[in-house]
Recover the amino acids of this structure.
């Protein structure tokens, strides 16, 4: 479906006003928003499934959820929002994926900046006021050997750090050869 605003021979500065007066553009915007909302719901559902039932790490789960949501959004936007029957679907998908990957990388960068700030020293809700009353924020044991940002741990340091967690230490005592190569 071609919008009238796309074919109007109006001066460049007058095109937004013409587009805003075209009801089809508003309907298309509503469809675009509905597709975006469904993509968000799909992303959350797949992420929860990947983290819970599939027991994937949060980065892998986020990537899987992103790919499923992008596929959902591309299909709905191509066939319902924009009705883009003309044109090669592969080229359209490549452009859509490129823009989506750029947004995903931006979100990952924002998470890398924001998540360390979220892992500040733990407090209980009753004393801080920043969390819900009575909520407990988990705090990592203080004896963990966490390297500075950008530095990697050796295998021995990883084992020593893991054994500082009581559940892992108990498992290590039950299965002493579980990671004996390090």
């Amino acid at each position: 479906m071609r919008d009238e605003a796309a074919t109007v021979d109006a001066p460049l500065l007058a095109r937004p006003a013409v587009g805003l007066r075209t009801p089809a553009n508003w309907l298309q915007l509503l469809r675009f928003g509905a597709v975006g909302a469904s993509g968000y719901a799909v992303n959350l559902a797949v992420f929860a499934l990947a983290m819970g039932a599939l027991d994937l790490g949060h980065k892998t789960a986020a990537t899987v959820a992103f790919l499923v949501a992008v596929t959902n959004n591309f299909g709905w936007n191509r066939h319902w929002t924009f009705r883009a029957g003309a044109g090669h679907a592969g080229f359209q998908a490549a452009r859509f994926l490129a823009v989506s990957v750029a947004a995903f990388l931006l979100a990952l960068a924002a998470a890398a900046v924001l998540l360390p700030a979220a892992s500040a020293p733990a407090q209980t809700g009753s004393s801080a006021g920043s969390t819900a009353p009575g909520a407990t924020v988990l705090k990592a044991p203080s004896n963990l050997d966490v390297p500075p940002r950008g530095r990697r741990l050796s295998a021995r340091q990883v084992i020593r750090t893991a054994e500082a967690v009581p559940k892992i230490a108990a498992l290590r005592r039950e299965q002493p050869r579980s990671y004996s190569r390090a």
Confidence is low (pLDDT under 50) at residues 122-130. The first helix runs from residue 4 to 7.
